[in-house]
Amino acid sequence: MAKPAPSGSTKKAGETPKKATKTPPEAKVETSFAETQGSGGETHQVAEGDVAVLTTQQGVPVADDQNSLKQGARGPTLLEDFHFREKIFHFDHERIPERVVHARGYAAHGFFELTDSLADVTRADIFQRVGERTPAFVRFSTVAGSKGSPDLARDVRGFAVKFYTKEGNWDLVGNNIPVFFIQDAIKFPDLIHAAKPAPDRAFPQAQTAHDNFWDFISLTPESMHMIMWIMSDRTLPRSFRTMEGFGVHTFRLLDADGRSTFVKFHWKPKAGLQSVVWNEAVKINGADPDFHRRDLWDAINAGDFPEWELGVQLFDEEFANSFDFDVLDSTKIIPEEILPVRIVGRLVLDRVVDNFFAETEQVAFCTQTVPPGIDVSNDPLLQGRNFSYLDTQLKRLGGPNFTHIPINAAKCPVSNFQQDGHMAMTNPKGRANYEPNTWGPVAGGPREDPVKGFRSYAAEPDGPKLRIRPESFADHYSQARQFLLSQEPIEQKHIGDALVFELSKVERPDIRSRVVSHLVNIDADLAATVADGLGMPVPEAAQAARPTNTDLAPSAALSIVRNGPNAFAGRKVGILVTDGTDAKLFAALTAALDAEDALFEVVAPKIGGATLSDGTLLAAKQKIDGGPSVLFDAIAVLPSAEGAALLAVDAPAKDFVTDAFAHCKFIGIGPKAEPLFQKAGLIDDLDEGCMPLTGAKDVASFVEACGALRFWPRELNVDLDAQPDA
Ligand code: HEM
After folding, report:
1. Mean pLDDT to the nearest integer, 292-312
2. What is the predicted ipTM?
3. What is the structure's pLDDT at 49?
4. Quick one: DSSP state of residue 704?
5. Order of strands, edge to edge, in the sheet holding 34-37?
6. What local confidence, expressed as pLDDT, does residue 21 receive?
7. Cα of 200 to ligand 1 centre, how many Å?
8. Distance between CA atoms of residues 89 and 82, nearest Å
């Protein structure tokens, strides 16, 4: 039997010497328990005062959590040790299956506030009273990667919102892209199999740059519109806070008389659309694979609450029939210029989760979780989703009672006769567990409400039972072209670069060629650029089910650059300092950033910080090789003369400036920084995006310039593909 822990060297917490540098609040450790050392030297922390006593899951207090029960000090562990067995048994079962798609996600709590009533078109309670707030929970995700994959994979982002309305939960399970790859849910398993790692070799992880994906795509022309979106910078968001969200499908709003209005849902970020560039994304994935989740966590904890506007496009059957395409086809949008987005509310995320697993992992969304007043349409992709989510959650969460898990439970009264099953928490009370019954108005339990209850839209049947794709779904290229031509030149270039990158990873030339044959139907210039980038001739155009309509007007709403931020607020400068950095200049810069509600992190050769010119010790957030410039939106380089000489021979310091330059970031250059730029080979290339920082006036111009997303004119000088003779 293990001996009770001897009272060896008892050390009260709080006796540890205080650190010299500032410690973030979450890192402050307060303990009020005594520590003792056991006979084998192990640490025992003993509860006293207000400290909770450790117990088993059955509530039995635990005397020793460091040693299992043994027959003799060196003998075998005994089966009798229920505490040991319970602890290991529970640990063994900690993992549940990860989501089959969207496995990597991050979530936060907040609220939706109605700013414009939709009472004229829907009875949905959430859309009735202006100013009313509805609690919400939002999970952002990537699609293809597994739970541990990096945040900056080139991928669609999930944007799933659960509204806890007074008449039941509403899940708006959207993405950051308003269209999808396929038109019919029966193709979803094929799409996802093709996108995920190949089944024999189990790579590549969280990437579409491989043969299987592009093979499937090349044989699925309906995906071409989506391909333009995923090859654009939309799939490289700077932050969850800076991306749009879309419900994708056409849904229905229903009024009290059952009249239907079609609706498409849009989320518009208050921070403006912002993305990173591909080379930067690749490096962020190494430097901080948690870049997006950290950003959301930090922003909310700092009180900089992310916000989106909810917009709706409302239309009727007649308007729907006015298009050449079908509003039930999820590969199509209705351009905002044709049908403006009406803003009806705002979503604010103001609270991080208490526990990642309990909330973010266990949350379960479903497209058909809709309250009275909202209904689905016949979109065949949506119809399939309505089945798929509940089915997968039955397995993922282990039974039919996942609606009892607090994150999934409605916040309005829930009353029915469903009972039992794994982990049942809310079985009906009393004798009645069926209806109709005659146990009286209270003991008999709940009854139907024909007025308030959910009613489906009374849609007319559409014809004979058929396994067929409607002809109205056959235009695969027109909107792909419209998207491409709606982009600014720099954005079009990025689409071409991304296609060349991805297809260069495809080993089979016939697959590359088949993809380019579709691009010919979208835009001859794009096809020529990509073919040239791949070193192949432009193939014949793919056989098109419908000729491309080249008359669609470009839509400004589709460009990130045109819908970017208008100030630097909420973004971050990496300030590189050394011993001897000019204290006044540093103070002027940080004051200007504070005034702008922008953020900064101090990067220094040592994590202990740097001693500024006035003798103050400035704590560093990052050591130079752990805080590369890809983690920041702009950089300021403020070394002393001696510091600059040291940085000039330091590889991470040189990368700090060359990467920022290559990624078209604004660069503030302190008066003594020249040797670093010299050694990094940039001194002759410095442009208007590289701004001298000498005093308050320069600082103001620098912070103002940073308000733009990037200094794009530089890209032509830093990209081999863009050189005229390349
Ligand atoms: C417009 C097309 C689609 C969009 C916008 C979309 C969006 C999403 C989102 C945002 C999630 C993550 C939910 C979360 O954070 O927990 C998700 C998960 C999932 N989606 Fe989709 N999806 C689409 C198409 C489909 C289709 C066609 C299917 C199947 C027929 C499907 C099946 C699933 C499954 C099985 C999950 C995992 C759910 C879970 O384990 O809880 N999705 N989808």
Report:
1. 98
2. 0.96
3. 87
4. H
5. 11-12, 34-37, 43-46
6. 35
7. 25
8. 10
Which residue owns the Cα nearest ligand 1 atom 34? Answer: 389
Is the per-residue pLDDT at 280 higher than 60?
A: yes
Return d(Cα 500, Cα 256) in angstroms, integer.
53
Structure tokens at 259: 């009249």
Q: Which residues contact residue 514 at a Cβ distance below 8 angstroms, ignoring those fewer than 6 apart? A: 218, 219, 539, 542
Reduced to 3 states, what is the DSSP secondary structure of residue 70?
strand
Ligand 1 is surrounded, with C-beta below 6 A, by 99-102, 105, 139, 141, 158, 160, 173-175, 180, 185, 188, 248, 330, 363-365, 381, 384-385, 388-389, 392-393, 396
How far is it, in rounded angstroms, from Cα 165 to Cα 142? 27
Tell me which residue of 446, 457, 289 sits closest to 370, measured CA to CA. Answer: 457
The full 3-state SS of 121-180, as one line of letters, equals CCCCHHHCCCCCEEEEEEEEEECCCCCCCCCCCCCCEEEEEEEEECCEEEEEEEECCCCC
SS3 call for 526: helix
Distance between Cα 236 and ligand 1 center (Å): 20
- Which residue's alpha carbon is nearest to atom 39 within ligand 1? 99
Q: pTM of the entire structure?
A: 0.94
Q: Judge whether 533 and 500 are in contact, CB under 8 Å.
A: yes
Enumerate long-range contacts of 101-104, CB under 8 Å, 24 or more apart.
101/143, 101/144, 101/192, 102/141, 102/142, 102/143, 102/158, 102/160, 103/141, 103/145, 103/146, 103/147, 103/149, 104/141, 104/142, 104/145, 104/146, 104/147, 104/148, 104/149, 104/151, 104/206
Contacts of 496 (CB under 8 A, 6+ apart): 526, 529, 530, 533
> Which pLDDT belongs to residue 32?
56
Q: What share of the chain is helix, strand, coil (3-state, %, to 5)?
A: 30, 15, 55
Which residue type does 9 have?
S
Q: Are 559 and 337 in contact (CB under 8 A)?
A: no
From 631, 636, 634, select the one nearest 578 (Cα to Cα): 636
102 is annotated as an active-site residue: yes
DSSP string, 527-565: HHHHHHHHT----PPPPPSS---TTPPP-GGG-SGGG--
DSSP 3-state of 647:
helix
Q: d(Cα 454, Cα 444) in Å, to the nearest integer? A: 22
Neighbours of 59 (CB within 10 A): 7
Position 14 scores a pLDDT of 33
What single string gives the DSSP state of each residue in 449-487? -TTTS-----PPP-SS------GGG---SHHHHHHHHTS
Alpha carbon of 235 to ligand 1 centroid (Å): 17
* C-alpha 103 to ligand 1 mean position (Å): 10
DSSP, collapsed to helix, strand or coil, labels residue 590 as helix
How many whole angstroms separate alpha carbon 63 and alpha carbon 365? 42
